[in-house]
Specification:
Elements lengths: L3 E13 L5 E13 L3 E5 L6 H8 L7 E6 L2 E2 L5 H11 E4 L11 H10 L6 H10 L15 H12 L6 E5 L7 H17 L3 E6 L2 H4 L4 E4 H4 L1 H4 L1
Parallel strand pairs: 3-8, 3-9, 6-7, 7-8
Antiparallel strand pairs: 1-2, 1-4, 4-5
Helix pairs in contact: 3-4, 3-5, 4-5, 5-6
Length: 225
């Protein structure tokens, strides 16, 4: 069995409402993801899926509990150390892609590399060729279809050779045909690059493409209580 890359233990997160009341969002007793494993996390919109990814990525602090990523406890790291760990260990595919409109596809992928401290145009081009955009490396996002922009986002997420890719509703802006193609692309590209994958979605057909599917409603004690 592969060693565990990500382990969550007694993870809790709440937010303040406009009425200044504490609203619990997440309360997860245990979750783990092995190196190279691909897991779909299913849940309805607004149930805390994006919040969970933000906690794992170190973008949002947990109220309590432990997040162990690549053998390191996030809570024990300084902000600078968390930034370094995120830059070298994680790739993130956002629902809205978050491409910079003034940059070409190649430059967007190269920008993802800069956070890890090393720019490699050759590898950036190789990633774009892997997602079938080799002829459009110099196109800016406005000249690309939505599906092609998604492919750039996938390439960018893999730019630093991450050990774990987080994908937040990556098919939400795609039609059915392109959504399923995008999932297959994300899975195969992660597999080829040796990266584990945690993809969150409310789409049953999307999560049905995964051997391991977890329901946030089963993991989150806020939802099952």
């Amino acid at each position: 069995m592969n060693p565990q890359l990500l382990v969550l233990t007694n993870l809790k997160k709440s937010f303040l409402t406009p009425e200044n009341e504490l609203l619990p969002i997440l309360d997860i007793a245990h979750f783990q993801l092995a190196q190279g494993e691909q897991v779909a996390l299913q849940g309805a919109s607004g149930c805390g899926k994006t919040t969970l990814l933000h906690l794992i990525a170190g973008l949002t602090p947990a109220d309590s509990g432990q997040i162990e990523l690549a053998g390191q406890q996030l809570s024990s790291l300084s902000e600078a150390a968390r930034d370094r760990l995120r830059a070298t260990t994680l790739g993130y595919i956002f629902q809205t892609f978050n491409l910079l409109q003034g940059l070409s596809a190649l430059e967007n992928v190269e920008l993802g590399m800069l956070f890890g401290g090393k720019r490699d145009p050759g590898y950036a081009r190789q990633l774009l060729e892997a997602v079938e955009l080799g002829q459009r490396v110099h196109y800016r996002p406005a000249r690309l279809s939505v599906g092609q922009q998604q492919r750039v986002a996938v390439a960018r997420a893999l730019a630093n050779r991450p050990r774990l890719v987080l994908a937040d509703e990556p098919t939400a802006n795609l039609d059915r045909k392109h959504a399923l193609e995008a999932v297959e692309l994300i899975q195969s590209t992660c597999r080829q690059n040796g990266a584990a994958l945690l993809l969150v979605s409310h789409d049953a057909e999307v999560v049905g493409r995964f051997e391991r599917v977890e329901r946030l409603a089963d993991l989150n004690r806020v939802l099952v209580s």
